[in-house]
Design a protein that fits this description.
By secondary structure, the protein is α/β, with parallel strands linked by helices. The chain is built from eight helices and 27 strands.
Amino acid sequence: MNSKCVDILVIGAGPAGLAAAIAAKEDGIDNLLVLEREHNPGGILRQCIHNGFGLHRFKEELTGPEYAQRDIDRAREMGIEIQTDTTVLSVDGKTHTVTCVSSAHGVEIITAKAIILAMGCRERPRGALGTPGTRCAGIYSAGTAQKFVNLEGYMPGKRVVILGSGDIGLIMARRMTLQGAKVLACVELMPFSSGLNRNIVQCLNDYDIPLYLSHTVIDIKGRERLTGVTVAKVDANRQPIPGSEIEFDCDTLLLSVGLIPENELSEGAGVKLSPLTSGAEVDDVLQTNLPGIFACGNVLHVHDLVDHVSNESFRAGHAAAAYVRGQLSGGDTLDVRDGDGVRGTVPQRIRKGVSEEVDLMFRPSGVFRNATCIVTCGGREIARKKAPIFTPGEMAVVKLKPEIVAGLDDTVTVTIERS
């Protein structure tokens, strides 16, 4: 059994892990290691061959592989060690000891002064939905279908129905159409889409693919292979309405029904998780309840844009470097709470007495038009942001200026008020 010690250990070499490692290296941390279970770094971006990435960070439009390659190249230029084909088995949150295994190195015990969790997220499977019907072939998560088409050159099917309007599902509606398939419908349980508006326009409207809001799949047909699905309208309690059924003859059903942060390692380490985001509860520098353990990217909360993942992860890398050098201020923290119309604000805590800009990120609990997000501390207003629309499909961000953060002395509450 091999053992080693590093200053910072990053788990995951997707956009979050790479950005965190680059930031830590820029801050002078040379004894740094990144672990990745896949054969190549880059994470999910490797299979996202569509454009639209990098507009905020690089001020130009890139494909997913192009975006990832920029960070991969930067990491290599800086001499950051990325150990691929390595599976992390456990993380000890108290001793900062990580057990991992790979064919090249066998079982390894790695001790780190600080650990950055950047494992990303996974798709919610069919089993979590409870949809009745047979267990026939032809049912895939949207991400699995994306990997088949973009990386492996396989077409999952020719007549497609998509359940859920998450961004991956919307993008795959366009991708399957361009590959020659007929996308019959995109079906969404909620009365609003969970994807970005630009993807609804560019991936559904531009290709005349109908979006059925307040509908769901109530039956799956076929024995060996999927032959069709039954879709029905749902009421306010999300129960199917009798007589509203629509039959679709199809050979493929793609599921785009939500993403779940990959937090099994975090939970095993003793990291406190939020029931709202399914990610870690963190402070304003993305440190968890365990000193020296940080979380960033989609393992913390599911983002809309990779640009935001990178920016958040840079902050985690800088904070981890400061922790290793003994320069990270700690002490008492103030709670950040969700008010009306707000769900899953990150961070959940702000360190008392610091004077640094803090981004409060959250998802609205519903669709609010011409509304205002108001941030209060001890009953007094400290920030507000007005928008023509707040929707769960798009992450909302409210910035607290350094001088505001320095004056915080009570619980911070984030609320959306209708105009």
